[in-house]
Amino acid sequence: MRTGSRGAFALLIAAMLVVSACSSSGATTAPTTAATDAPATAAPSDGGSAAPTGLPYTGTLKDGSTFTLHPRVADKLAKGEPINYVFSYGSTAIPLFSPQYAAGYERTLPEAQKILPMNGQAIAPASAVQDVNEQIAQFDALFKADQIDCLSIQSTGTDAFTKIVNDIMATGIPVFTVGVESNGNEFSNFTQISNKEGRQAAGIIVDYMKANNLDFKVFAVSGGDPTQNWAQGRMQGFIDGIKEAIPDATFVNDASTALVTTYDPAATYDAYKAFIQGNPEVQVIENVDIGGEHAARAIADSGNTGKMFSLGWNVSIGQLDAIEAGTQIVALDQQWGDQAGFGALACAELLKNGKVLPNTNVLKPITTENVVQAREDFMAIAGG
Predict the structure, then answer these.
(1) Domain 6-191+337-353 coded CATH 3.40.50.2300
(2) Which residue, 44, 109, 262, 328, could crosslink 120 as a Cys pair with Cβ 3.0–4.6 Å?
(3) DSSP string, 117-165
(4) What's the confidence (pLDDT) of residue 218?
């Protein structure tokens, strides 16, 4: 944005007014631009925001608070200086997740820089699990040092980042979140809605059962940390979807008693092996996190190929192998690279063109029909 570019600020005003009218917890917003350079003159139809007057922009956010673009950021835009964009994610050391997130950020940053001059920085704790406190401390330090002009956060829980997001937004620094739905004031969120993910998984299993003349009756849920909101949603959505389609279906556990797994391959495999030995009647095991391939391997090693099946989230060579071998029905790809790349593009579009990018993150089912292409795509990302 150049000096005196009042029209671009008018676009920003119009876009933010629409955002302030959107109040769903998933923060899914429609893309919005102003048709002309004229300043906005009317509040949204639901009365959620008062019409802004003059510059810098002020308006009401979904919790009733007021957002005013930080003068430092406004000054940089007016002078055409690069902004400081920061992307915070959960860990640099989680298998599969961390390298795909890093690759997505690196791939997308140059695209955003073509839209708006920006300096980019990706930060994450080095721990093997997602440490919320350390993650917040990292970007909070940069924020307090005035080193963030626009921020994207890979949230790890619905409420985990609500306060810090709201605090930063209150100072006039735009925030976007990715990965998990959030209850904060961020402009938009690029993520799945967990319960809907679970229901989508259930629908795929039911379709597979019908297409292959199978009669699934006994199910189980597992994976990661079942106490997390995203895990609970994926499990409960799956349970609800299965029971609606198969009224006499039973589950040997539920979202509160699910089999807990870790990011350790050997420990996860052993957990599934013991679970299968103790629950031989199970026909389908849902894994809602990294590790679905270990369920499939335990199924094969226990002699249950063709009698017991798994499904999992995310993409790995092990899961692709299991799909081809017939022990896993589907891998649900969250498209981590797209999540990691969203923030840079969202900041660029918001601050340059006044557009709030919508939540277009979709689960991509990987089955026998597209597993070959999925393998090629995965190897391209992994550099193999």
Answers:
(1) yes
(2) 109
(3) -EEEEEE---SSS--HHHHHHHHHHHHHTT--SEEEEE-SSTTTTHHHH
(4) 98
Dist CA 176 CA 231 (whole Å): 22
- Give domain limits for the chain: 6-191+337-353, 194-333+368-382
CA distance 91 to 127: 6
Provide the token pair at 77.
């835009």
How much is the pLDDT for 193? Answer: 87
Question: pTM of the predicted model, to two decimals?
Answer: 0.80
pLDDT tens-digit series, residues 277-303: 999 999 999 999 888 999 999 999 999
Closest by CA to 136, choosing from 163, 101, 103, is: 163
Fold type of domain 194-333+368-382: Rossmann fold (3.40.50)
pLDDT digits (tens, 9 = 90+) for 179-196: 986 788 898 889 888 999
194-333+368-382 shares the fold of 6-191+337-353: yes
